[in-house]
Amino acid sequence: MEHRPPYAPGQVEAVWQRAKEESPDGKVRDPNSGDILTWERLKTRGDQWHMGHKEGHEYRYLLE
Questions:
Q1: What is the pLDDT of residue 64?
Q2: How far apart (Å, rounded) are the C-alpha atoms in residues 41 and 11?
Q3: Among 6, 7, 17, 24, whose Cα sits 20 to 30 Å from the Cα of 62?
Q4: Which residue(s) pair with 48 in the sheet?
């Protein structure tokens, strides 16, 4: 398999919700810059938050 497998149903929504709940003020922030992130499920990933990976857990390393 060369492509990343799809996310499970509801997984992206659950990760976003957990990030909001874990934030002291309910805002999701970029862990590197501290910028506030936004996400609307029906919009494209381009200029908004999109679920990625934690550093060191990139899918490409699983293929090696």
A1: 62
A2: 12
A3: 17
A4: none
